[in-house]
Amino acid sequence: MNGLTNLTAVFLLGLAGCGQHNAALEPYANATLTAGVGLGDLKLGQTTLGSVVQRLGVETVTQLASDEVGLELIYERGQLALLFLVDPECLTRLGGAGLRPAAVDMAASLEKNPCLRDLRLSSLSVRAGSDAESSFFQGMSDAGVKLWGGRAELIKHGTPGGGGGHILAGMNPNNPREQFHFDSGIAIYLKPPENGDPALARVQRITVFPPVE
Description:
This protein has 6 helices and 11 strands. The protein is an alpha+beta fold.
């Protein structure tokens, strides 16, 4: 997937105490995670970075760089990630400072740079907490897959194949190695228990991205 082995994630910003609950996120805790579409009213290809910052605030911002460059907004102690890919034309407009000003003042950076403000959501990911009850996302995918669900749930989304074609929200070295990408625009990550029995693997992350054409 386009140089993912060269993926780098640089920590840029941590605002809003991680221990505080963000009430603005409550509608998404039980919303439907729809393959190729998004989560509730967070729509791939439609929801802008500016609107997310205005409604949800900023907790942590990460810059991702591979063959593409993106700004990832992370909420709920890493359990919700929203990725906005930055097109080359916008990067050129930002000049030599690039995306660094976002580390100082995201709101001011968006106000000064309309091309950043208008970036569209490219992918979205939810990650499991330490157990099902402590996970931020309590909903399910449009086919009925939940975090902490079992291996048998994969068949609900059909036959795996293809991938996101881009860097995706929620990518990090700690993700489970067993990953299943579906052309409909969803990826499911399975992690086995400590005893290592693959049959008992549980869903630890679900990511949605534009459907593969």
